[in-house]
């Protein structure tokens, strides 16, 4: 057992209740399958119905990790206060104009939840602001509360807002009268958290979740009527597809977006005809993705059709948007990944990534002239906020780097003038000159160059003595931005090198980077991460026993895989809401995300090849007798994305096979789901706990 964890009480021992399963002629035994609650659907809605034996085990694990981390209580408080001190407690957004009003958010000092507010356009004095939704007030008396959306109607008379008060992501929708600021009688349950107003603002479209937490129906709700009378607009019969309803800046169309991880289909309704039937744009075709953006007389369509792997932008006439009528607007360029597109009256704007870095490009719809908004730092992050309005020359974007606090700009697309509206305040102080941010490239096992973003203080000695927190994700094509993060400064200020490994499985270097870390190529994701860890140690940024690896969700699967693959490369591992029981989850088609996830991971029910492919790396299935470092796993009891039993089973098996390694800690939040605690300060307490673990295992606590 590692020295920092001496004198621990006896660890919980999960009872073994072997369950055998045979697929494709292969038999596996799962000793801890009983930790999966048979009534998980009910538990998501009411945690009191959890099997007492399962609850007792989770509570015993919580008591054990509390004992193991007891000597870090003061450190956790210190870290929390530091991180809280970097937040402007009464912060507010720059209001976004829309017609006669401007809309924004703010926080009160000490408040956990956002407040949504509006003010007459062009007026920003405090007395001009009206709080239209107070998150702190709505959260009173609730252990968990999260607002999913707050969308004003086009006539500015009503607010459609959603919330979850269990962490299960079964959201309720309410409608608020913006004159009286009272909620109307409309109360819509079991939604995905948002909706789209019709053109007359007499009702809205929304996605309804079924008992297995899948958005299987799009319905239309007319204000003042019971939910039972909502009109079924479209029902998706294939459980393998996600679905949602979206709108446009022109409020002219409602988009029904149906997709999995590699195929998409759009169905259109005119927003002024809520009784109409949706029209298919391009029928789903395996491997072909597209997204729709309304542009007046045309649609702009972002797609990978015709082997445009890194995507191109097409146009189609509004009255005939079918695929045979698509015309090229921005050509495909290999290695330049177009991420999203926005249309305005005179301009089209998109954000793209090339050589691992993002940029914003503006194109004049009439002349065809285009230009990019340029930046100079070695590694940075961009966010395109756009505008609520269609008839405008001004868009909004955010910029930051690992050392530069977030800046909000308005950008005039015609004059190319950028106006700085706000720079993120760090009340406790922050001098970018005290830190170094770097982008290095690390050769992986097959020669692929893996980008790595580094942050550390200028006075950090790079002689192998510095501890390192190495973060990774590497799935679903998600790229991890090199953005400003005030929390990680608490590690950097204690001598840490903070590193982000932009490994395969994300789209950091284009779509091919994603494909090279997916399904049959999934092992590249794990090997990339191990290569980065070994490189950082070899180049004296740190040493192997001082590297703490961190990842969450699919990044938690990464943590489990690299722990099995190279336990000697890490001094500690933090796996949050960890997707570690991959094979069992992909074999359970009743779980919310399993059928839609098969394109990402493979379908082990239908395919022996996929079964063996997943079994080869699934962290839970590959736990062995190895010199594992200390591991912290974090779970949420009502998490519908990565169910609590995945990390619970993983920790039980690690401990049973390796009584002298670790220790292995499991922290289950009994009042939350996938995203952890809902309040901004409660979330900081969870980060402080994880950071305290990293400091403890590296001897810096």
UniProtKB/TrEMBL annotation:
<protein>
    <submittedName>
        <fullName>S9 family peptidase</fullName>
    </submittedName>
</protein>
<dbReference type="InterPro" id="IPR029058">
    <property type="entry name" value="AB_hydrolase_fold"/>
</dbReference>
<dbReference type="Pfam" id="PF00326">
    <property type="entry name" value="Peptidase_S9"/>
</dbReference>
<dbReference type="GO" id="GO:0006508">
    <property type="term" value="P:proteolysis"/>
</dbReference>
<keyword id="KW-0720">Serine protease</keyword>
<comment type="similarity">
    <text>Belongs to the peptidase S9A family.</text>
</comment>
<keyword id="KW-0378">Hydrolase</keyword>
<keyword id="KW-0645">Protease</keyword>
<dbReference type="GO" id="GO:0004252">
    <property type="term" value="F:serine-type endopeptidase activity"/>
</dbReference>
<dbReference type="InterPro" id="IPR051543">
    <property type="entry name" value="Serine_Peptidase_S9A"/>
</dbReference>
<feature type="domain" description="Peptidase S9A N-terminal">
    <location>
        <begin position="13"/>
        <end position="423"/>
    </location>
</feature>
<dbReference type="InterPro" id="IPR002470">
    <property type="entry name" value="Peptidase_S9A"/>
</dbReference>
<dbReference type="Pfam" id="PF02897">
    <property type="entry name" value="Peptidase_S9_N"/>
</dbReference>
<dbReference type="InterPro" id="IPR023302">
    <property type="entry name" value="Pept_S9A_N"/>
</dbReference>
<feature type="domain" description="Peptidase S9 prolyl oligopeptidase catalytic">
    <location>
        <begin position="483"/>
        <end position="700"/>
    </location>
</feature>
<dbReference type="InterPro" id="IPR001375">
    <property type="entry name" value="Peptidase_S9_cat"/>
</dbReference>
<feature type="region of interest" description="Disordered">
    <location>
        <begin position="86"/>
        <end position="122"/>
    </location>
</feature>
């Amino acid at each position: 057992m590692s020295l920092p964890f001496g004198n621990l009480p006896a660890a919980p021992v999960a009872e073994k209740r072997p369950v055998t399963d045979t697929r494709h002629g292969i038999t596996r035994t799962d000793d801890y399958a009983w930790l999966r609650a048979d009534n998980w659907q009910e538990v998501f809605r009411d945690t009191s119905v959890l099997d007492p034996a399962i609850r007792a085990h989770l509570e015993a694990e919580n008591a054990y990790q509390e004992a193991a981390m007891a000597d870090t209580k003061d450190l956790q408080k210190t870290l929390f206060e530091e991180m809280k001190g970097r937040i402007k407690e009464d912060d507010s957004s720059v209001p976004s104009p829309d017609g006669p009003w401007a809309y924004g958010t703010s926080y009160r000092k000490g408040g956990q939840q956002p407040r949504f507010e509006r003010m007459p356009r062009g007026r920003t004095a405090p007395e001009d602001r009206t709080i239209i939704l107070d998150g702190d007030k709505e959260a009173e008396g609730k252990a968990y509360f999260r607002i999913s959306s707050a969308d004003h109607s086009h006539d500015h008379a009503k607010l459609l807002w959603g919330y979850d008060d269990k962490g299960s992501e079964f959201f309720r929708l309410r409608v608020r009268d913006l004159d009286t600021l009272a909620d109307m009688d409309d109360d819509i349950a079991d939604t995905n958290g948002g909706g789209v107003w019709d053109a007359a603002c007499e009702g809205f479209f929304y996605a309804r979740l079924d008992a297995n937490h899948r958005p299987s129906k799009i319905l239309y709700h007319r204000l003042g009527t019971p939910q039972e009378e909502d009109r079924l607009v479209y029902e998706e019969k294939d459980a393998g597809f996600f679905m949602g309803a979206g709108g446009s800046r022109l409020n002219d169309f409602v988009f029904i977006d149906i997709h999995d991880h590699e195929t998409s289909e759009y169905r259109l309704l005119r927003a002024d005809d809520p009784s109409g039937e949706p029209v298919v744009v391009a029928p789903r075709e395996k491997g072909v993705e597209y997204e729709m953006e309304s542009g007046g007389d045309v649609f702009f369509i972002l797609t990978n059709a015709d082997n445009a792997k890194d995507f191109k932008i097409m146009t189609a006439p509004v009255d005939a948007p079918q695929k045979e009528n698509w015309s090229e607007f921005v050509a495909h360029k290999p290695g330049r990944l177009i991420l999203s597109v926005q249309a305005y009256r005179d301009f089209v704007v998109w954000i793209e990534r090339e050589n691992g870095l993002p940029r914003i490009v503006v194109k004049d719809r009439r002349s065809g002239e285009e230009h990019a908004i340029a930046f100079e730092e070695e590694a940075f992050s961009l966010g395109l906020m756009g505008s609520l309005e269609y008839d405008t020359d001004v868009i909004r974007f955010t910029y930051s780097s690992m050392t530069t606090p977030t800046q909000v700009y308005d950008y005039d697309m015609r004059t190319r003038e950028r106006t700085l509206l706000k720079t993120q305040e760090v009340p406790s102080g922050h001098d970018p000159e005290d830190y170094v941010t770097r982008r290095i490239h690390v050769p992986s096992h097959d020669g692929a160059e893996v980008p790595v973003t580094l942050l550390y203080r200028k006075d950090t000695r790079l002689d192998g003595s510095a501890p390192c927190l190495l973060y990774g994700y590497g799935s679903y094509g998600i790229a991890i931005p090199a953005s400003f993060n005030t929390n990680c400064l608490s590690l950097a200020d204690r001598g840490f090198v903070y590193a982000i490994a932009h490994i395969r499985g994300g789209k950091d270097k284009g779509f091919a980077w994603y494909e090279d870390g997916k399904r049959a190529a999934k092992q590249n994701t794990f090997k990339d991460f191990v290569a980065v860890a070994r490189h950082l140690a070899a180049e004296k940024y740190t040493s192997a026993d001082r590297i703490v690896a961190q990842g969450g969700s699919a990044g938690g699967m990464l943590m489990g895989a690299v722990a099995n693959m190279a336990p000697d490369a890490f001094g500690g591992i933090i796996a949050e809401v960890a997707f570690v029981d991959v094979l069992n989850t992909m074999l359970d088609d009743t779980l919310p995300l399993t059928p839609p996830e098969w394109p990402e991971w493979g379908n082990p029910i239908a395919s022996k090849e996929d079964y063996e492919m997943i079994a080869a790396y699934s962290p839970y299935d590959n736990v062995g007798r190895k010199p594992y470092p200390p591991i912290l796993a974090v779970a949420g009891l009502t998490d519908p994305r990565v169910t609590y039993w995945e990390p619970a089973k993983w920790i039980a098996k690690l401990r049973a096979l390796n009584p002298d390694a670790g220790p292995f800690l499991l922290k289950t939040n009994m009042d939350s789901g996938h995203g952890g605690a809902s309040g901004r300060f409660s979330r900081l307490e969870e980060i402080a706990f994880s950071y305290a673990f990293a400091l403890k295992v590296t001897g810096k606590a």
